[in-house]
Automatic annotation (TrEMBL):
Mg(2+) binds at residues 445, 447, 848, 852. GO terms for molecular function: ATP binding; ATP hydrolysis activity; ATPase-coupled intramembrane lipid transporter activity; magnesium ion binding. The lineage of its organism: Eukaryota, Viridiplantae, Streptophyta, Embryophyta, Tracheophyta. This is Phospholipid-transporting ATPase. It catalyses: ATP + H2O + phospholipidSide 1 = ADP + phosphate + phospholipidSide 2. Residues 874-1114 form the P-type ATPase C-terminal domain. Its main location: membrane. It comes from Brassica carinata (Ethiopian mustard). The chain crosses the membrane at residues 99-117, 123-141, 316-340, 376-397, 910-932, 938-958, 987-1011, 1023-1043, 1055-1078, 1084-1104. Residues 1-21 are annotated as: Disordered. PROSITE patterns: ATPASE_E1_E2 (PS00154). The keyword Magnesium applies.
Length: 1147
């Protein structure tokens, strides 16, 4: 290892010229990490004992010995699903998970039996084969892309220590136990425990964008004991005992033994596959997890699979159609049985039937006749084969294509493009597009979802005194700067300062007691954090900007605030920090660090100060901090601070409390021994570390409190108002204080001044029950009053998983808005489940952080915000966007369109197939109840696939019953989906009655017109085929709202294509009906019948449609008329005619 000899270490990053400020001559000490990450509920083994059966043993730099005993997974990855040999069987197995496909396979198999053969054997298989082929091609292409990506990834090169030197090796050949060298800006090929870095203190900086989407740099550390030994890897002797592979990217538990010493390893000592090395020249590590066992690959699962409500509802109609199909088949079999019994004496000679075959011998032989009972049995199953398209096989593939088209236009919508993050809308789950049009409950996170999650320091309370005047003199607008070694350093982000407080910090810590407290306060802010300072170049070579990188936006804001007041954090290593205090460089040794966790709700750092004293600095939420303060000595200051915190929270500001105390030698030694024992424990390490932190974080002296503003995103108030008018109940779930949450509720228009607030703050089950029952009674007594329910996380503890869930749900249903504050992540999911399990209404959850993942996955529709807290929410979501306000066009516009299109398309597919089946059924009644058909088998096959399918797909993608402008202007139009007006059982039965009428007209008009003529059945069948295609396409044309050239081409082109196909089929001599279309089409009767069929079949539908829309117009019909007239003068009257949903109706 080469020491860093220069005072400044400049390391250029890949995208910009960044430098890390280091002062290597100041020395360092080892940093200690305490209860980091202990708050995660899914830390798996990281909080538990590493038992022998749950552990793996890795011998450092000895992969042969490591893999000899355990045979660990190699580093080759495989995200592809298929191989050349497994593609066909596995793909077919997956496709036949759809019951409808199994149904059509059984039909095709039945048709292969001679006794049941109705169609040609090839023709009967074609529809199913076509659908399977299209899906297989799509799956094969997607898997080919995965294979290509895997090949590129596996063939990347890394430096592996072999034969006493680092040699390049392909990633796929890396093994567990090998030592890897990674250089700056390289991606890590596997999960490895750090052994050494280019920094003599063992610190390394990584960017985890590829892992969790967070762009801020994170610090990881090599153990001091391994730094020197790593210089001679040949003699490095040791092993690591770690937990088995798991998905938790925030937890890791292991022990390392070298030279007879056992060292504890945690999340800060491991760097994961997919991370990039930044601002560090190189790092050495030993591979502990490789390939599919790395945490990145274990987390490489897509969005959860969900089924749309419309598709689930469609199953009921498919069951009804199946029953209808069985009824038709039973009717055909029963009537055939009666006919056979009635004519049993004439079966040998009756025309067109002739049971006897006299060509064999004079007395004849029964020809394909198996007796009365078997004939009925065969007739039933032959009817099933003939009428099989009653269940539309093409519907499934049509739905997939329509959803792909809808997703394409959603992702291309400029109204959902976020310029600030340069991110477009993402559709991660294609199968629930239409659910966006039926949302009734919206559950939203606050921080980063309703707000920007870009924190700005606003106020400070020091010693109980408020400093909130942020109007600085003009001279201070330039911001704070300091000169170090001839280089002027400035914080990258400016913070407006309080002039009085600024003057106090300038006076120095020894001027007055007030000035001393102010300096102590900002020293706490600069020191008590995990921020990494990075220096970036500017256009002026003598001026550089200090950029503070950290996982918490709150910490960044506090450190920038400290810098603005003259406490500029310059350097952070594994053992010390350097702070420039008003031009004086001061170094503090980091003796211990307990990171923030949600159990303690605070973090602490133990510093060795320049005056040789040891001080403990703690910051955290007020709810956890006031309990560890020395109230006896500082009671007055605590009370004054509490009052200021209440004022800050009422203004919607986020608050933190800062405390400290000096540690004497005995206290520090006791803490150090307890900490070392806890950090090396094999059982319950995280709990022991929390206990150590809790023991030292006591009897604190209150230093002050901070107030940070997290501003609302642009358009949030207008978005929430539009959603509420649309009839969507908005619930905001936040971890903030109640006062902060209420303030944000008013500013976001979730709460209004005319709402009566019902606040539930209970500390016991009985008081919670009593409060909820009293609130329910008060709301029931005044039905006209608008109510806002506000409940805290403590009360929810007693509500969730208890009999109080029903009481809370009843109260929430009567409320216009619900605000839950101080809620934990698991409670968010519990609240969604509470509603989802008690109503059939659709739920949507939206959030931006890892704490929102459970809520997003619990809801029917999950939306992730690409925000400041990484991409965990996005990766778990069904849809992703950049801003909360994009929900308005997503739901009110695209959701409305998708629901209307998909609902109509499903009903239309049922209708067009049922028309064709009933034509075949009517024919059976006039052919001695046999299953012969006049329509050729190829026309029967092509009807659903070619003749009528393409227009359905085009209209399902492009048609719009209303324009974007009017949908956004009148949000109550969204209620169409909530009330299921686009798809319902009523519409299904209306469609079926219309189907019976149209099929009867199509069949009987030609039948009676040609009754007694010499026309052959093939000619009549061609007329029925063309008439059916024309009628169903004109039926579709009657319902098209937005005509364009694509719609014209699809509808009229399908009619032309059907005619061409009929002609082609009839000119093939080997097929039945040779030249039939030419014989019938040259007569005037053919064209008269075609015209009569079109007019007679569609006239009742046209008349009913006219009467309904004229005398009982729907909201959509009224809006369409207004839109068509091109004026909105009727908007006032329109508002009264439509279903007004200013406040959602109560249950």
């Amino acid at each position: 290892m080469e020491p860093i000899s220069s005072r400044w270490s400049n390391v250029s990053s890949k995208d910009n010229n960044n430098k890390e400020v280091t002062f290597s001559d100041l020395g360092s000490k080892r940093i200690r990490h305490g209860s980091a990450g202990a708050d995660s509920e899914f830390l798996s083994m990281s909080q538990k004992e590493i038992k022998d059966e749950d552990a793996r043993l890795i011998y450092i730099n000895d992969p042969d010995r490591t893999n000899e005993a355990f045979d660990f997974t190699g580093n080759s990855i495989k995200t592809a699903k298929y191989s050349v040999f497994t593609f066909l069987p596995r793909n077919l197995f997956e496709q036949f998970h759809r019951v409808a496909y199994v149904y059509f396979l059984v039909i095709a198999v039945l048709n292969q039996l001679p006794q049941l053969a109705v169609f040609g054997r090839g023709a009967s298989i074609m529809p199913l084969a076509f659908v399977l082929l299209v899906s297989a091609i799509k799956d094969a292409y997607e898997d080919f892309r995965r294979h290509r990506s895997d090949r590129v990834e596996n063939n990347r090169l890394a430096l592996v220590f072999e034969d006493n030197d680092f040699r390049e090796k392909q990633w796929k050949y890396i093994r567990v136990g090998e030592v890897i060298k990674v250089v700056s800006n390289q991606t890590l090929p596997c999960d490895m425990v750090l052994l050494a870095t280019s920094d003599p203190t063992g610190v390394v900086y990584v960017q985890t964008t590829n892992l969790d989407g967070e762009s801020n740099l994170k610090t990881r550390y090599a153990k001091q004991e391994t730094l020197q030994k790593a210089t001679d890897l040949e003699t490095f002797d040791g092993f690591i005992k770690c937990e088995k592979p798991n998905r938790n990217i925030y937890g890791f538990q292991a022990n390392m033994e070298i030279d007879g010493r056992r060292l504890s390893l945690g999340p800060s000592n491991i760097i994961l596959r997919g991370c990039e090395l930044k601002n560090t020249e190189w790092a050495l590590g030993v591979v502990v997890y490789a390939g599919s066992e790395t945490k990145a690959m274990l987390n490489n699962s897509g969005a959860p699979s969900k089924r749309s409500r419309l598709e689930t509802r469609m199953n009921l109609e498919i069951i009804l159609l199946s029953l209808f199909l069985i009824a038709l088949c039973t009717t055909a079999a029963a009537t055939a049985a009666v006919w056979l019994r009635t004519h049993r004496d004439d079966l040998d000679t009756i025309l067109f039937y002739r049971r006897k075959d006299y060509s064999v011998r004079p007395e004849g032989k029964n020809h394909n006749y198996y007796g009365w009972g078997w004939e009925i049995f065969f007739t039933f199953f032959m009817a099933v084969i003939v009428y099989q398209i009653m269940i539309p096989i093409s519907l499934y593939i049509s739905m997939e294509l329509v959803r792909i088209g809808q997703a394409y236009f959603m992702t291309r919508d400029d109204l959902m493009y976020d310029e600030s993050s340069n991110s477009s809308f993402q559709c991660r789950a294609l199968n629930i597009n239409e659910d966006l049009g039926q949302i009734k409950y919206l559950f939203s996170d606050k921080t980063g979802t309703l707000t920007d999650n870009k924190m700005e320091f606003q106020c400070a309370c020091i010693g109980g005194v408020d400093y909130s005047d942020r109007e600085p003199p003009e001279s201070e607008q330039a911001g704070y700067s300091v000169e170090v070694d001839g280089i002027i350093l400035k914080p990258k982000m400016r913070v407006r300062v309080d002039p009085v407080l600024l003057q106090l910090t300038r006076n120095g810590s020894k001027a007055t007691e007030e000035a001393k407290r102010a300096n102590e306060f900002f020293l706490s802010l600069a020191a008590c954090n995990t921020i990494v300072p990075i220096v970036t170049n500017t256009s002026d070579p003598n001026v550089k900007l200090v950029d503070y990188q950290g996982e918490s936006p709150d910490e960044q804001a506090l450190v920038y605030a400290a810098a603005a007041y003259g406490f500029l954090l310059i350097e952070r290593t594994s053992g010390h920090i350097v702070i420039n205090v008003r031009g004086e460089m001061q170094r503090f040794d980091v003796l211990g660090l307990h990171e923030f966790d949600s159990d303690r709700k605070r973090m602490s750092v133990i510093l060795g100060c320049p005056d040789m004293s040891v001080k403990l600095f703690v910051k955290g939420a007020d709810s956890s901090m006031f309990g560890v303060m020395d109230e006896v000595s500082y009671g007055d200051v605590i009370e004054a601070t509490k009052k200021q915190l209440h004022a800050y929270s009422s203004d919607g500001l986020r608050t933190l409390v800062v405390g400290m105390r000096k540690l004497n030698d005995s206290e520090f030694e006791q803490w150090r021994s307890s900490f070392e024992a806890a950090s090396t424990a094999l059982i319950g390490r995280a709990g022991l570390l929390r206990k150590v932190a809790g023991n030292i974080e006591t009897k604190l002296r209150i230093v002050g409190a901070t107030a940070i503003e997290d501003k609302l995103q642009r358009g949030v108030p207008e978005a929430i108002e539009s959603l509420r008018i649309a009839g969507i109940k908005v619930w905001v779930l936040t971890g903030d204080k109640q006062e902060t949450a209420i303030s944000i509720g008013f500013s976001s228009r979730l709460l209004t001044r005319n709402m009566r607030q019902i606040v539930i703050n209970s500390n016991s089950l009985d008081s919670c029950r009593r409060s909820l029952e009293e609130a329910n009674a008060s709301v029931a007594s005044d039905d006209d009053e608008s109510v806002a329910l506000i409940i805290d996380g403590t009360s929810l503890i007693y509500v969730l998983d208890n009999d109080l869930e029903d009481v809370l749900f009843q109260l929430a249903c009567k409320s216009s808005a619900v605000l839950c504050c101080r809620v934990a992540p698991f409670q968010k999911a519990g609240i969604v489940a509470l509603v989802k399990n008690r109503t059939s209404d659709m739920t949507l959850a939206i959030g931006d952080g890892a704490n929102d993942v459970s809520m997003i996955q619990m809801a029917d529709v999950g939306v992730g915000i690409s925000g400041q807290e990484g991409r965990q929410a996005v990766m778990a979501s069904d849809f992703a966007m950049g801003q909360f306000r994009f929900l308005v066009p997503l739901l009110l516009v695209h959701g409305h369109w998708n629901y209307q299109r998909m609902g109509y398309m499903i009903l239309y597919n049922f209708y067009r197939n049922a028309v064709f089946v009933l034509i075949l059924f009517w024919y059976v009644l006039f052919t001695c109840y046999t299953l012969t058909t006049a329509i050729t088998e190829w026309s029967s096959v092509l009807y659903s696939v070619v003749y009528t399918s393409f227009p359905t797909i085009v209209i399902g993608i492009l048609d719009k019953n209303l324009g974007r402008r009017i949908l956004l202007r009148h949000p109550q139009l969204y209620g169409v989906g909530q009330r299921a007006e686009g798809y319902s059982t009523t519409l299904f039965w209306y469609m079926m009655f219309d189907t019976v009428w149209q099929s009867a007209v199509i069949f009987f008009i030609p039948l009676f017109a040609y009754w007694g003529s010499t026309i052959d059945t093939s000619s009549l069948g061609d007329l029925w085929t063309i008439a059916a295609v024309v009628v169903v396409n004109l039926h579709l044309a009657m319902d098209v709202i937005r005509w364009n050239w694509i719609a014209h081409a699809a509808i009229w082109g399908s009619i032309v294509a059907a005619c061409i196909c009929v002609i082609v089929i009839d000119v093939i001599p080997t097929l039945p009906g040779y030249w039939a279309i030419f014989q019938v089409a040259k007569t005037w009767m053919f064209w008269f019948c075609l015209l009569a069929i079109v007019v007679t079949s569609l006239l009742p539908r046209f008349a009913i449609k006219f009467l309904v829309e004229y005398y009982r117009p729907s909201d959509v019909r009224i809006a369409r008329e207004v839109e068509k007239l091109g004026t909105f003068r009727e908007s006032q009257t329109m508002g009264t005619e439509m279903n007004q949903i200013q406040d959602p109706p109560r249950r």
